[in-house]
Amino acid sequence: MAALVIHEIDEEIVEALEGVAEQNGTSPKIEHRRILEAALKPAEPQKKCFVEFLASMPNIGKDEDFGC
């Protein structure tokens, strides 16, 4: 696995990263990795259950409107 070193980071950013790490009970290194992964890895498509899929369909009329 590769290593990444970043120079010239604003101290406020470093402190914010340390604060997030402390809140999550992790290290700044782990939080930095999570942030990079969230920003750069493609998101996996969210799967919908059948009921959610049906609910997402627009209401385009009644059956009678279509000759059923």
UniProtKB/TrEMBL annotation:
Gene3D superfamilies per UniProt: Met repressor-like (1.10.1220.10)
Pfam families on file: FitA-like_RHH
UniProt xrefs under InterPro entries: Arc_rbn_hlx_hlx (IPR013321), FitA-like_RHH (IPR053853), Ribbon_hlx_hlx (IPR010985)
Residue ranges of domain Antitoxin FitA-like ribbon-helix-helix in the record: 2-40
TM stretches of this protein: none
Record's protein name: Antitoxin FitA-like ribbon-helix-helix domain-containing protein
